[in-house]
Specification:
Length: about 100
């Protein structure tokens, strides 16, 4: 139990959030492994998550530097979210906590 708490603190410092407490962020990051996705497609993958909550979590992940958004200014404009290098490292470190591949859809 004590080692688990220590690992959570280390993980929180490395990736910017506690993967156990922040399930929504963890699942979002896992879903971005397969490539860029729009807010709407991420929301559909996480049934029951509101648009506002999904938007907030994406904004927080972007502020931490784990994801970035790419804007295509065609008509209609399209915004896709992708993992950064730090985000890929985060997903790799999440493998010790969860089965990342089974979460991603």
């Amino acid at each position: 139990m004590k080692n688990e708490r220590k690992e959570n603190k280390v993980c929180k410092q490395v990736i910017g959030f506690d993967p156990i407490k922040c399930e929504c962020k963890t699942i979002t990051m896992c879903n971005l492994q397969s490539g860029g996705k729009t807010l709407f497609s991420l929301q559909k993958l996480m049934e029951g998550t509101s648009f506002d909550l999904m938007s907030l979590k994406l904004q927080q992940l972007e502020e931490i530097g784990l994801i970035y958004k790419s804007v295509n200014y065609s008509y209609p404009a399209e915004i896709k979210y992708f993992l950064t290098i730090k985000g890929w490292e985060c997903v790799r470190s999440l493998r010790s906590y969860v089965d990342v591949d089974s979460i991603a859809v």
